[in-house]
Model the fold of this input.
Amino acid sequence: MTSSARDILIGIDAGTSVIKSVAFDLSGRQVAIASVPNRYTTRQDGAAFQSLDETWADCAQTLRSLADLVPDLAKRTAALAVTAQGDGTWLVGQGDRPVTDGWIWLDSRAVSTVHRLRNLPTDRARFESTGTGLNACQMGTQLAHMLTTTPEFLVGAEAALHPKDWLYLKLTGQRVADPSEANFTFGNFRTRRYDSDVIASLGLTKYRHLLPEIVDGSHTTHKLSTRAAEVTGLLEGTPVSLGYVDVVCTALGAGIYTGGESSNSAVGCTIIGSTGMHMLAKSVDDVVLNADATGYVMVLPLKGKVAQIHSNMASTLNIDWVLKIAADLAADLAQPVSKAELLARIDGWLAATEPGSLIYHPYISEAGERGPFVDPNARASFIGLDGTHRFPDLVRAVIEGLGLAARDCYTAMGVLPSELRLTGGAARSRGLRAIHAAAIGAPTRISAREEAGAAGAAMMAAVANGHYAGIDECIAEWVTPLLGNSEPADTELSANYADLYNNFFAARRALSPVWQGLANRQDRKK
Done:
């Protein structure tokens, strides 16, 4: 690593819940963090959107606040990079002004368009190119839906951006896209370029001009603009990198790849957050695309490497739900209990209950499930209850359901991980880690990295600006030392869960018509 008088790298991570700016020293040590809540609006028609201008103002505020925490931040900043929540559609027109509010990944207005496009004979070829199943959250389907419902948006647009692309535009004045989102939506993960046939399959050939140039932020930077310098307090001309999408940056920072894996191993990285992200670092030639045409393939900032991904719509949201039942009951009995107190009991409940006595499908989201199958009608359920089961048994079943859902996702990618690296707040639970290890049948490791997404973005800036010779060298200092010791899977528990998974899988396949029937009943009530 080279030395520099400028000793700070800033990673911006504009998530769905929080926008953060994080300062790191050149060796990857986190120095300070400033954040503000993100703001977005939802409607009963499935709309979920946020103001582009407010998002930029909030991002700039985090950078100004970071300067209050880091002395001489502007003069010390060697470079900054930005990542953000994935998918969505943020249209800009003349003068880089927003055409409308940004549609975010939670927006479900394009569901009918997804069904139409998935039934076209061209969809399998599109999937083979992108490696990504169609979903209402994606720019491609949202643009196609706008074309049939609000075509005036596209007429007035000059560029279609993702959230991080918008922030990069405000920072540098450049309309560009990164390789990860550009390719899983409109391109080919093998060539890392836009694909005309994919764009045509979405009915968007006429609007190809809206797609920006693809740049790799680990190689290419642009300078912080005069206006952005005035708003953020940083110095004009500071190099800025466009990070990959937040999922990729988080996986990079959390250790999905450390360079020490053998060529035939598949290291998994699971983010246990509100949603569950399950990722395998693979060589391009090892990608296995499932028959259901679901999941994602996202290129990594590593030559020939991709992250193959399946994502559960809800992960810890299931735990929140079951604990809220206890909290509500306690409140009704005039004995209120906090969520923190209930969380502290989880490992004790797991230790006191029998593994595998129930099946729980963790489809608690009102939007259903998206990985490894897509069904907006999917709903959570317990199977196997009898009079001996108590509340701790339900808690165990919910957490086992998360582990089995992770196995379901990895199975759809063709191989179970040889090692599972966990990140997210829930990964601090030893009992939860043990269940995931046994459900996958692989040892687990957790990272001490607090802000993996911002770190992943900052790593790209570190490489782009010559502080490291390449991403592998940066990983060796920023990522590998922060990985904890390997925690082996319990072999007896693994055998138990391997058997239970067969029932979990069979039941979720059998329940599909039941979910449809329940949805039909709700429709008749409207």
Remarks:
- The radius of gyration is 23 Å.
